[in-house]
Every structure is written in C-alpha cells, then in structure tokens.
Amino acid sequence: MKKQTSDHRSPTYTKTRPRVLALSSGGGHWVQLLRLRPAFKDCDITYATVSRDYESEVEGAKFRVIVDSNRDQKLKLILSLFSIACLILKERPNAILSTGAAPGFFALFIGKLLGKKTIWVDSIANAEELSMSGQKAGKYATHWLTQWEHLAKPEGPHYCGNVLGDDSEDRAQKSKDSSLKTDLEQFTPISNSQSTIHNRSSKIFVTVGTDQHFDRMVKIVDQWAANNPTHEIFAQIGEADYQPTHLKYSKFLTPQEFIERVKSSSLIVAHAGMGTIIIALTHQKPTLVMPKLASLGENRNEHQTATAKYLSGQVKVNVVFGERDLVVALDHLESIPSDSTIGRFASHLLTIKLSSFILS
Description:
The chain is an alpha/beta fold. It is built from twelve helices and 13 strands. The protein starts with 18 loop residues before the first strand and ends with a helix.
C-alpha cells in the first residue's frame, strides 16, 4: 500500500502594484512631475497632462490627455473638472499625485471624494507662499508638501526635499560604491559636457514661456543682436506684440523642439520659469534669467521675482532684474558662470518619501 502524501506548500500570491495617477498642467508643472519618476518605480503608473505633445517623454507608460484650465477661464475650468473626473473613474487609481496647477487641484478634490490617497507637491516656483491651488489642495491632500523648507508648518504643508535635487551632485561624485550605480543615475546630469560661452561667437536660445508675453526681454536681446551679429540667436517669443528684426524666432515650440534648442545652445536667456530653468540645468547649460513682472502685465503675480532671488542665492542660476543689467550681462558673456548643474531627478529624500506614501 502506497503511503499517501500531501502537499503542504503555501500557495504563491503575487503582490498587486498600486495604481497611481500622476497628473499636472503643462510646462513647469509637467517638468517637475517627471522628476519624481523614481517614486513610481514599483507602481502601475498613468501620466496625465494637457497636451499629446508630452507623450514621448513617458514612452512606454500609460498616458492620458486632460483639458487645461486656469482661474481666468471659467468654462474651461468646468470642462477640465469633467475630463479629470472621467479619467479617475476610468483608471480607478489607488493614489493620485499632482504638482499643480488647477487640474491637479481638481484631481485631488475628486480623489478625496472617492476615498483615494491624494498627494500634492506644490510647485517650486512658489518660493514666498504656496500657490493658490496649493493652498486649497491642503484640505483634500492625504500628504501635502511644499518644496521650500521655510514654508513648511507642523500642520502642513510639510517639506521632504525638492525637484532640484539639493546636493545630489556632490553625493553622486563622492560615492565610491559601484553597487549603488543604479541609484546614482538619479543624481547624474543628462549631458556630460558643459557649454563654453564665447564673447564673439555663441549660440544663444531665448525663451519667454507659453503664457504671457515678455516683449521687454525680447526687445533688449533683439537690439543687442543688431550690434553683435556674430552670435547665432534664436528666440521663442509667445503671443508677442514685438516682432524681432535681428534674430530668428518662433512663437511656440513643441516640448521636443524646445529640448533640442536647449541641447544645441551654449547659453539660455529666459524668463524665470521653473520648467525652463530645470531643463537648462539638467543639460548643464549656463542660464541667464530675467523675471517677468506682474506690474507690467507680464505675469499673474510676482512669484518669478521671488523664486529668482531664492535660486540665485543657491547659485543655481544667473539672475538679472532689469533691462540695463541684462545688457551688461550680454556684453560680458564670458563672465556668466557655467558650472551650475542638477541631476536627472528630484532629491532622493523626496522620491523615497513619495514612494512610501504611495505604498503604505
């Protein structure tokens, strides 16, 4: 008689990866969202933003388009809310994370109503106070974060690092442990060669962003170009009243075209938009920044001036605050520091904290 045997092995269970919806507006909000990608490595991630043009930046991941809006567009606010509600009901995420702006607030608002885990990372562009959306989002956020330590409060928002990466470059260069190679990719710039600025011949990319005009800066550079014809200058000017006559320009660029312009230039001259600053520093490009002024109708508020002051104090970018200073800086291109750089992703602490929020 054969001895009966039984299999007492426990059944094998596969842990389900949490479904995460990472959503933001375009421009700088989207650039900051992408720098948080290490936090999503153990997740079933879906990205959502306001234009199909961004899809190639998350190739291989699920990508959805939502309706863009801001507080000045009442009808589009309603359409945006509806499109985001439909997206959340369809994707059924376990967690929703946003870097702003209005679409991100809608996502957290709806997510909270549906019992989802919600995470708000306020834009680093808001150095003196939280954004309007960020202030409202605190009520609906499971985890409510600012990227400026001086804005953190015991009751929230809290500070866990920022998308610039803090001292990540130093950590990457000082580490000798080859076993950490994969993690250190987070702290390595995209480009390995820095630009050289020449007083007589440089390739300069001027950009004003996609919102309000910045004719004041474009006009100064155009006039300077007339007296310095040996420099190759291209400008992205937005919906401008002023049309340059001494340099090539385009109103808008696709995200891919924008990055190619940055990569091929030796100097970036820009408004104080965080998307532009982050992309330029990631590609190790010297960056000369001039903030837009709300008092002149160039922006909705004065946050660019405040952010530029804080960033210049960290020696991340070269800042001028007036027309005369911009001309002086252009006349002395060789004096513009070109050694500022950041890694490919946000600070390690921030991405680790976000990952723990999602997985907890």
